[in-house]
Design goal:
heterodimer, A: mainly beta, Immunoglobulin-like, 11 strands, B: 113 residues, 7-stranded mixed beta sheet
């Protein structure tokens, strides 16, 4: 059965720390892996990864995919309180099915 | 922000009643999706649509039906609501073609007593 597993489930850090969030998957007919940030309402899109080894960056956030080992990481450097959120990993298959992990709840303390 | 409006935003109803949730988009995107989000399960796909009158089942489709008579509207219906369908429901849209991410609406919080 297709599944997406995120770790850790929750994480508490202080401003300025660097964090690494993990996502492993077992999905048939893999098409892409996506990261979303969810604060109070809608998940907002961060990255889409389709190829191994190519890092995507946006400001202090970056992500990379390893299709051989079936995982991805999301890094956040110099964390700020505004980074506090649930970070969701999702894997999309070629049949349009998308499976989400349970999410990592990140809390950044001042 | 993607032009997605979900209605209602909150609803409380009783077991056995029919419920319809609406997703309206102004982006003219081909694909539309319904998810539910529950603690410990993340987001799970209920149904999706790849065009007007074209729909397919997702991971947790039992107890739900959908309809799409216009590009901009995607309806999710619970024919006879049960307490297990208490959840937050999200609509998402995406453009046609590969490498197009889904963008989400703000959700509908549905409570079934």
């Amino acid at each position: 059965e297709d599944k997406v597993v995120q770790s850790p489930l929750s994480l508490v850090v202080h401003e300025g720390d660097t964090v690494t969030l993990n996502c492993s998957y077992e999905v048939t007919n893999f098409r892409s892996l996506l990261w979303y940030k969810q604060e109070k309402k809608a998940p907002t899109f961060l990255f889409m990864l389709t190829s191994s080894g190519i890092e995507k960056k946006s400001g202090r956030l970056s992500s990379i995919l390893d299709k051989k080992e079936l995982f991805s990481i999301l890094n956040i450097t110099a964390t700020q309180t505004g980074d506090s959120a649930i970070y969701l990993c999702a894997v999309e298959a070629w049949n349009n099915d998308m499976r989400f992990g349970a999410g990592t709840r990140l809390t950044v303390k001042p | 922000d993607a032009g997605i409006t979900q209605s209602p935003r909150h609803k409380v109803t009783e077991t056995g009643t029919p419920v319809t949730l609406r997703c309206h988009q102004t982006e003219n995107h081909r694909y539309m999706y319904w998810y539910r989000q529950d603690p410990g399960h993340g987001l799970r796909l209920i149904h999706y649509s790849y065009g007007v009158k074209d729909t397919d089942k997702g991971e947790v489709s039992d107890g739900y039906s959908v309809s799409r008579s216009k590009t901009e509207d995607f309806l999710l219906t619970l024919e006879s609501a049960t307490s297990s369908q208490t959840s937050v429901y999200f609509c998402a849209i995406s453009e046609a073609g590969s490498n197009q991410p889904q963008h989400f609406g703000d959700g509908t919080r549905l409570s079934i007593l």
